[in-house]
Write a sequence for this structure.
């Protein structure tokens, strides 16, 4: 926002600095002078800047508002029972106009003469549907704000068939001085005139969905920060058919939510200045390779986040790609999940130090439904910077899992979630020395808490959710008697044992589903012995989530699923 409003100058850049670096340096100077309060990221967190957030003390805020009013830089629209546009003879607006939700429906936009110097226009989210027409009326006047540098409309609820035929944002292309454009809502249909914004530096659609973006981003030579919308399937099938693949500006420094279905992954290789990168790859192994090739060789990348969905890792080539993903120095956050694919990954690739001379950069890893048959900890415990690990539903199909001595040197948060076959989990002395939070959810066959937890002196929280009663009784004190495993976690300050809301109904549905599966078992062939229980668990999870109630519906779901 500061950069877009022209508060950061190119002349302030030092050697090898970006505009974001200059802004961070200025913010630190303000903090040193006690004008703002800043909060830095925790140690080990990868980010474009060191600073997570900043706050303004209320006294400093009052002083700034008073000074801005004195200099005619800022206008706050007050709500009154009746509001008519003031006469054109009144003093013109300052440089910033912000409308709150309660102002929209009652506010008449000022005449063009009073707003022609406006630099920033911010419209907060609307709460009531009846305000839609007021919003459209105000937005239709924004085209007169020719000097705008920052435009933020945080509620554009236009998800209808009409919005896909004609864009209500056609006027945006006329705001040629725009530096920062932020839009939030559903069904946003950006016009081709977006390509006219030659000075645009920031395009933020991160809080939007079902957007249609024309393939004009490559024309924006000054675009540095691009936050694409959340690409997801939904009822707007016309949007999926009409969204073209996007070519990107070569000057990008921040690129969020790249999707290989709607962008050209090979274009990432042409972004030499990329510092922050977040992408999702669906099904296509070649697209994943294009992205990995660039990420692995980049020297200026500060943080990268990657989500891989429905890519099978059964072949030697796919395992090679997976090893490059896991052990790359430049991938920091990783999610691997299968939604529609039901292939198995026998084991994770082994760490080869001669192939990866630099330490793996991975700090967060989440695995869901990839069906690993051999103990994944053998590989994962060798990741030197891993801090958060989540093994989700059907990520591991084996019965035994071990954390060996000296493994997981930096791991702080561990989440074991619906590992339906897991029976024994061992933690050797010296393993996971920095673990502070452990969460075990719905691992129905797990027999007991591992003995090694007693050695984890900095463990602060243990959560046991939807675990069998026999398992829970081993760590409880009942009637003055300690359970068999109570001593293993007696040093932990917080131990929570609970069930999720609606668990009783879900358990009943599990029983119904098991009966349904049993009736159709003759028509189903499982690839291994663990498949049946995993499928049953998946049915239960999905049925509970959608609140299915009738066995006939469950039977229909199970049959069609297979």
């Amino acid at each position: 926002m500061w950069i877009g409003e022209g508060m950061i100058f190119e002349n302030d850049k030092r050697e090898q600095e970006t505009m974001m670096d200059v802004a961070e340096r200025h913010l630190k100077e303000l903090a040193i002078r006690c004008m703002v309060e800043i909060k830095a990221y925790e140690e080990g967190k990868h980010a474009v800047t060191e600073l997570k957030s900043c706050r303004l003390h209320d006294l400093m805020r009052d002083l700034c508002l008073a000074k801005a009013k004195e200099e005619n830089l800022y206008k706050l629209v007050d709500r009154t029972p009746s509001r008519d546009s003031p006469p054109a003879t009144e003093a013109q607006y300052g440089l910033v106009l912000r409308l709150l939700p309660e102002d929209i429906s009652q506010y008449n936009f000022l005449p063009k003469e009073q707003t022609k110097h406006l630099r920033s226009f911010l419209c907060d989210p609307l709460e009531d549907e009846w305000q839609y027409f007021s919003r459209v009326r105000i937005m239709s006047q924004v085209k007169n704000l020719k000097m705008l540098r920052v435009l933020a409309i945080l509620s554009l609820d236009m998800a209808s068939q009409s919005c896909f035929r004609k864009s209500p944002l056609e006027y945006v292309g006329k705001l040629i001085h725009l530096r920062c454009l932020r839009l939030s809502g559903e069904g946003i249909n950006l016009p081709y005139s977006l390509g006219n914004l030659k000075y645009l530096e920031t395009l933020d659609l991160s809080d939007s969905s079902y957007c249609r973006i024309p393939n004009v981003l490559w024309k924006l030579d000054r675009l540095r920060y691009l936050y694409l919308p959340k690409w997801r399937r939904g009822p707007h099938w016309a949007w999926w058919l009409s969204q073209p693949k996007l070519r990107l500006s070569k000057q990008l420094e921040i690129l969020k939510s790249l999707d290989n279905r709607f962008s050209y992954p090979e274009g990432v290789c042409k972004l030499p200045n990329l510092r922050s990168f977040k992408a999702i790859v669906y099904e296509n192994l070649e697209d994943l390779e294009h992205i990995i090739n660039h990420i692995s060789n980049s020297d200026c990348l500060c943080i990268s986040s990657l989500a891989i969905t429905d890519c099978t890792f059964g072949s030697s080539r796919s395992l090679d790609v997976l090893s490059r993903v896991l052990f790359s120095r430049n991938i920091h956050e990783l999610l691997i999940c299968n939604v529609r694919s039901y292939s198995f990954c026998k084991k994770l690739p082994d760490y080869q130090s001669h192939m990866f001379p630099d330490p793996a950069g991975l700090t967060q890893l989440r695995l869901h439904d990839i069906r690993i048959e051999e103990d994944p900890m053998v590989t994962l415990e060798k990741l030197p910077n891993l801090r958060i690990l989540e093994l989700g539903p059907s990520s591991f199909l084996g019965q035994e899992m071990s954390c060996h001595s000296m493994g997981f040197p930096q791991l702080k948060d561990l989440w074991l979630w619906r590992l339906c076959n897991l029976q024994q989990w061992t933690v050797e002395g010296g393993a996971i020395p920095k673990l502070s939070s452990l969460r075990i959810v719905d691992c129905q066959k797990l027999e007991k808490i591992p003995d090694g937890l007693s050695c984890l002196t900095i463990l602060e929280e243990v959560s046991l959710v939807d675990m069998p009663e026999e398992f829970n009784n081993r760590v409880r004190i009942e009637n003055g008697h300690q359970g068999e495993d109570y001593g293993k976690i007696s040093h932990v300050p917080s131990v929570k044992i609970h069930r999720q809301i609606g668990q009783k109904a879900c358990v009943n549905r599990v029983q119904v589903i098991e009966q349904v599966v049993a009736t159709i078992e003759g028509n189903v062939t499982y690839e291994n012995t663990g498949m049946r229980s995993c499928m049953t668990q998946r049915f239960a999870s999905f049925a509970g989530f959608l609140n299915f109630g009738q066995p006939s519906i469950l039977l229909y779901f199970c049959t069609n699923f297979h």
Q: What stands out?
A: Confidence is low (pLDDT under 50) at residues 79-93, 158-166, 502-512, 519-562. Residues 205 and 228 are 5 Å apart (CA to CA). The first strand starts at residue 37 and ends at 40.
